[in-house]
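Notes, p. 3: input format for complexes.
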Amino acid sequence: MSNYDVVVIGSGPGGYVAAIRCAQLGMKTAIVEKYNTLGGTCLNVGCIPSKALLDSSEHFHNASHSFKEHGIDIKDLKVNFKQMIERKRGVVEQTCAGIDFLMKKNKIDVHNGFGSFKDKNTIQVTPEKGDSVELKTKNTIIATGSKPASFPFIQLDKKRVITSTEALELDEVPKHMIIVGGGVIGLELGSVYARLGSKISVVEYMDGIIPTMDKSLGKELQKNLKKELGFEFYMSHKVTEVKGEAKKATLKAENKKGELVELEADYALVSVGRRPYTDNLGLENAGVKVDDRGRVDVDGHLQTNVPGIYAIGDVVKGAMLAHKAEEEGVFVAEALAGQKPHIDHNLIPGVVYTWPEVAAVGKTEEELKAAGAKYKSGMFPFKASGRARASMDEKYGFVKILSDEVTDEVLGVHMIGPRCADLIIEAVVAMEYRATAEDISRICHPHPTFTEAFKEAALDATEKRALHI
Ligand code: FAD
Ligand code: NAD
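Output follows (469 residues plus nicotinamide-adenine-dinucleotide):
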């Protein structure tokens, strides 16, 4: 039996980062992972493989749609989908191997097997083959992540009615794919296949896509996906059945008028959210409580109701994002070492890696209105940005800044356009330091860059004095 200061269950971005920080701070640390590769959802079947396919498909789309405009002619352009998937596998393999290296470098013991609580201080690890081992520990960090959610009326056969995991491993480009749920996964993976030639039909329950983000972003993105990639949208539709057959998937839904809508495609991708994963974890053996949505219940310090047992990432409340899981991992490690770490969950940015990219931080306009806050709004469209015009003749997108009407403090930033996934960090830094819109408008931004749109939106929010509109 081994004795540890900390055992981390789950090796996703929450778990492996928590383990590294614990080890850096001198704690004897182990990590338990049920799969053979480390890295969790993010590295194996999430962020990394989806971005690999998004980038590959974007290259193809640009080569077939915008290269000609730039004076580049290519003959016989075609997709080698097998190679695209092979490359994605290679990227995943390399990234996961990097985590093995980091575990060794930080002298973290890796236990491959299913982890479960035997009691508050004992974790049983059951490998696929061979005997179980028991780890004694002073502290445990639950970082078991999430799995795709579904509904009883969806027959998820994982062949024709699939989740994101299978959508990242198809062996053909579908002619037609139905997407149930117009959230982040549906729109990102829908973009991959639409760029490669698939017809995409999104069926969404709400009246807007990416409904948890500022409404202006969903509207602009929907317009773009329809026009540029031919997406078909079925908004405000209540799905009642999704079924797979040998070579097709079918869907039934009710529209706003109560009429039946039926769709048929090669595949139906179910992307209606993810559920926290605590199956067979033995929480009851340690007395750990979950909340009404099945998430491990934690306090403001990410500690469960049992002292010494913490939980982080997708398995607890808050946004299901890799960087949120990482921040929480570092937070718990530093708290265990007696430090006083801090996370502002309001300042965790969200990004959708479609084209144009969507990114946001802070409060949405809808949230500010609901809270009765008095705010100003500044906006700058990318079509007025010299850099956007020079590089891709950008017709879509904008940066929107919301700031307090009296103090001018920035309360929320919402952007859609080229490289917004990277641009958003300037807003996060500004908000971490409680900058005003005027502060941003007085900072020199290099020309010609996409970042100028952020400064111009700040000028617009401050005194309606943007320079280039
Ligand atoms: P996970 O990454 O889910 O890791 C949990 C790990 O715990 C898994 O390896 C699991 O096998 C293991 N485990 C579970 N139970 C046990 C047990 N009992 N014993 C041992 N091991 C166990 N987020 C972003 O921020 N950016 C993105 O671009 C992005 N893209 C995504 C794309 C897709 C297709 C998907 C599905 C998700 C994406 N996400 C993205 C979300 C991101 O992957 C998650 O928020 C993140 O992985 C959560 O990290 P985690 O450490 O909490 O859990
Ligand atoms: P999501 O919550 O983003 O979107 C789910 C969508 O499904 C919503 O628009 C919702 O209204 C809709 N929906 C729910 N029930 C429905 C029904 N019965 N019929 C039709 N529509 C329905 O969830 P997701 O896209 O599955 O992604 C899961 C998680 O993974 C998200 O929380 C996200 O944070 C994370 N993720 C992040 C990224 C990123 O950061 N770029 C990428 C992929 C996934």
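The mean pLDDT is 97.
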